[in-house]
């Protein structure tokens, strides 16, 4: 078991994340990814103070002016920034033509095992937080004014972009964290290609890397990160690295070990975001027996099945909170949760989920879930943003289900002078979500991140959203039985 979390006896405000670097005497938060000169949001360091006027007040209390430079704890400011950002016209200089070099043409086959045993727990429990000293209002206002005066403008100058990273936009989270709106997903990136792919995507300009224990390639992602850093492409603090807690590690005593294993594999000492991968707890598989363990409890059994474990989510979440308060991860969140599960989680969370990651594309627009997250100030990341594309090779989608091939998307792409993939990703970021497309091809890496130099009209946005069919490709309730001999519904 990990140690008891430090007690925070201040009143908990809905929508407020609590982190150890809130107080002056807590360890300093590592620097969050600073947006580049022409990025939209500009907070460069966590603002750890609660504004005096906000302490003890609810979300309906009057809020200071919007801006990501607003003080920590200012939910409405962060939200207003996100909203303003969504509606802000994007006028960016088009980027240069892409390189055509393929990084990999290999088939998608990422399931691989690592047999090294888990490292010993390294997290030191943080000391009990002392009461937060409050900064005078005037000082906070001065900070905001000063930050605004130095805020870089979007890249609408004639300066050529140094990399696609220069055009990136961000979803502001609390404490100055900035989630890059376009990230790169590592699911099904071939293990042998992953280090090169990772270095390449960083070179292209991606700073948001979406990883998971279950993808079986965190060691190789770590090698790519290391190569990129040693080649001077970025610093660790420029990156946003997400990993995910696999289903077999939901019991509180395994959460820390699982996170530490991902960190060790990635060669990092903190994660920017750690997500619960699925709201399904599976029976524990020892790290040294099978890693990543995947879905089967015992793949060598005569009739292998998924074995569930009865672990209440509140216990898993408390262990996730301990990771956050220890500083091992900066943000915690969830994947594949619906509104009822989120609502329940919010009823006991001391640290609210910063991000929900869930399948979203024009055939599964998730309007209500997205709106609920907006209401609860939970950032939203769309996985499989290109729709069926990822599921053909798995036999989980029919070729007729390619949203990229729909007339609506193709006609809009032609009208915009963009590719269907760029239209789908632009639709995703323009409706306020982050998107994390995967590809192993260099030209597609450039294509997929290059979505900040055009804007879809309201009519085009509506037409794309109108394609919704409620079609979910990644549903354990469907693939569980076919692939793993186990009926595993989670969305019903
Ligand atoms: N939390 C979860 O439960 C969960 C579940 C699924 C996925 N995810 C995350 O989300 C990421 C993205 O989702 P995904 O990988 O399922 O799907 P995706 O990124 O929507 O689609 C990937 C597929 O589209 C192809 N593709 C990529 N760019 C293209 C382009 N510009 N034009 C045409 N085809 C293109 C890729 O082929 P090539 O590689 O050949 O280019 C690949 O087959 C994952 O990698 C993972 O990190 C999370």
Automatic annotation (TrEMBL):
Catalytic activity, EC: 1.1.1.274
GO molecular function: 2,5-didehydrogluconate reductase activity
Biased composition (Polar residues): 96-115
Compositionally skewed regions (Basic residues) per UniProt: 125-146
SUPFAM superfamilies: NAD(P)-linked oxidoreductase
Keywords, comma-separated and alphabetical: Oxidoreductase
Domain NADP-dependent oxidoreductase: start-end pairs: 183-468
PANTHER family xref list: ALDO/KETO REDUCTASE
UniProt similarity note: Belongs to the aldo/keto reductase family.
Descriptive protein name: 2,5-diketo-D-gluconic acid reductase A
Protein encoded by which gene: dkgA
């Amino acid at each position: 078991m990990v140690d008891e979390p430090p007690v925070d006896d201040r009143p908990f405000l809905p929508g407020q994340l609590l982190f150890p670097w809130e107080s002056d005497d807590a360890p300093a938060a590592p620097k969050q990814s600073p947006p580049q000169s022409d990025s939209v949001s500009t907070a460069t360091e966590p603002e750890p103070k609660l504004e005096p006027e906000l302490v003890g007040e609810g979300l309906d209390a009057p809020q200071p002016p919007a801006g990501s430079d607003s003080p920590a704890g200012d939910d409405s400011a962060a939200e207003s920034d996100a909203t303003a950002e969504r509606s802000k016209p994007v006028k960016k200089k088009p980027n240069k033509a892409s390189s055509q070099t393929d990084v990999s043409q290999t088939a998608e086959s990422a399931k691989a095992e690592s047999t090294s045993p888990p490292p010993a727990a390294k997290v030191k429990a943080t000391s009990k937080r002392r009461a937060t000293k409050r900064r005078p209002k005037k000082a906070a206002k001065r900070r905001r004014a000063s930050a605004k005066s130095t805020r870089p403008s979007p890249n609408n100058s004639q300066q050529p972009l140094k990399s696609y990273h220069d055009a990136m936009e961000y979803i502001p989270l609390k404490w100055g964290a900035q989630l890059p709106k376009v990230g790169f997903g590592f699911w099904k990136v071939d293990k042998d290609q992953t280090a090169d792919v990772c270095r390449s995507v960083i070179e292209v300009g991606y700073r948001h890397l979406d990883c998971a224990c279950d993808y079986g390639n965190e060691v190789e992602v770590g090698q790519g990160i290391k190569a990129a850093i040693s080649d001077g492409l970025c610093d660790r603090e420029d990156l946003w690295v997400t990993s995910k807690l696999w289903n077999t590690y939901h019991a509180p005593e395994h959460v820390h070990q699982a996170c530490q294993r991902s960190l060790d594999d990635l060669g990092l000492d903190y994660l920017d975001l750690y997500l619960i991968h699925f709201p399904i707890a599976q029976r524990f598989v020892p790290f040294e027996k099978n890693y990543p363990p995947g879905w089967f409890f015992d793949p060598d059994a005569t009739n292998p099945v998924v074995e569930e474990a009865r672990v209440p989510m509140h216990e898993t979440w408390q262990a996730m909170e301990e990771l956050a308060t220890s500083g091992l991860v900066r943000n915690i969140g969830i994947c594949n949760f619906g509104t009822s599960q989120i609502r329940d989680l919010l009823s006991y969370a001391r640290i609210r989920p910063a991000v929900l990651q869930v399948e979203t594309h024009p055939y599964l627009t998730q309007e209500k879930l997205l709106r609920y997250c907006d209401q609860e100030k939970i950032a939203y990341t769309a996985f499989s943003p290109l729709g069926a594309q990822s599921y053909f090779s798995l036999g989980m989608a029919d070729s007729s289900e390619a949203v990229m091939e729909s007339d609506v998307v193709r006609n809009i792409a032609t009208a915009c002078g963009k590719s269907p993939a760029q239209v789908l990703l632009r639709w995703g970021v323009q409706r306020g979500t982050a998107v994390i497309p995967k590809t192993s091809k260099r030209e597609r890496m450039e294509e997929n991140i290059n979505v900040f130099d055009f804007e879809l009209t309201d009519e085009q946005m509506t037409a794309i959203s109108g394609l919704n069919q409620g079609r979910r490709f990644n549903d354990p309730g469907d693939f569980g039985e076919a692939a793993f001999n186990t009926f595993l519904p989670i969305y019903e």
